[in-house]
């Protein structure tokens, strides 16, 4: 039985969602729930192995459907080993990327059928959806400029994609925002980090911790 709260963090590359997630932790710690954070693809050993396979820049021949199925497989394992136990323990669980990334990147970005991806997501998660999804929105050029400036990691396979692909990914997120207005809330990620954190916190408090 699920007792915790599940919040996913989504956005195009360079939106800064991972920094926002880290910045929220001390503030959320005051609400009395145990916190847990994790990320996709990865978060548990099997899924981290799948992550290396997907993001390895040497894997230039990877087919789009293979890529999708690997993300889905990583999601399933992560769900069983991390997400469900955390929710059963009553934790406030913050997850860096989840189902919407597959729709945005493999669906809108790569052009795979979105309804097929929705079905695969449901299959992998047994229909679990986050209680809230924060979507960190930023113009593609601005996001890519941030990545170029703050690069601490090596170039991965997804980083090598074209600006057009990133543009389609962003449009995908914007269309999901229209489709799931009760679940997904947009946060303006072009602001200073502290302001983005404050906006994200306000959404979480309004939704779950008001009185
Ligand atoms: P990561 O370095 O974690 O990127 P970020 O910090 O932007 O989250 O790499 C994850 C990459 O995988 C990112 O480019 C988005 C992509 N991705 C998909 O294409 N589909 C998915 O289902 C998921 C979970 C991630």
How would you characterize the overall build of this protein?
There is one protein chain. With about 210 residues, the chain is α/β, with parallel strands linked by helices. It has one domain: 3-Layer(aba) Sandwich (Rossmann fold). Helix content is about 55%, strand content about 15%. It has eight helices and five strands; from the N terminus they run βαβααβααβααβα. A five-stranded parallel beta sheet has the order 2-3-1-4-5, sandwiched between helices. α1 crosses α8, α2 packs antiparallel against α3 (about 65-90) and α3 (about 65-90) runs parallel beside α5. The chain is globular, with a radius of gyration of 16 Å. The mean pLDDT is about 95. Thymidine-5'-diphosphate (TYD) binds near residues 96 and 101.
Could you write a compact summary of the structure shown?
The chain has helices at 17-28, 45-55, 64-88, 99-109, 114-125, 140-149, 163-179, 193-209; strands spanning 5-10, 35-39, 92-96, 132-137, 184-188. It has 211 residues and is of the alpha/beta class. The protein has one domain: Rossmann fold, CATH 3.40.50.300.
């Amino acid at each position: 039985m699920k007792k915790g709260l599940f919040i996913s963090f989504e956005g195009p590359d360079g939106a800064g969602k991972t920094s926002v997630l880290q910045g929220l932790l001390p503030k959320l710690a005051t609400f009395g729930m145990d916190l847990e954070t994790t990320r996709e693809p990865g978060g548990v050993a099997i899924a981290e192995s799948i992550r290396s396979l997907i993001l390895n820049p040497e894997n230039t021949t990877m087919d789009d459907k293979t890529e999708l199925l690997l993300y889905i497989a990583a999601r399933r394992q992560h769900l069983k080993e991390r997400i469900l136990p955390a929710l059963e323990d009553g934790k406030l669980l913050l997850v860096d990327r989840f189902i919407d990334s597959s729709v945005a990147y493999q669906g809108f970005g790569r052009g795979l059928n979105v309804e097929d991806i929705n079905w695969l997501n449901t299959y992998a998660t047994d229909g679990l959806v986050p209680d809230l999804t924060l979507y960190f929105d930023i113009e593609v050029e601005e996001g890519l400029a941030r990545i170029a400036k703050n690069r601490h990691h090596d170039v991965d396979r997804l980083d090598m994609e074209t600006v057009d692909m990133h543009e389609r990914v962003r449009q995908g997120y914007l269309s999901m925002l229209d489709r799931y207005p009760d679940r997904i809330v947009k946060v303006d990620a072009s602001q200073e980090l502290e302001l983005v954190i404050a906006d994200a916190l306000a959404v979480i408090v309004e939704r779950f911790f008001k009185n």
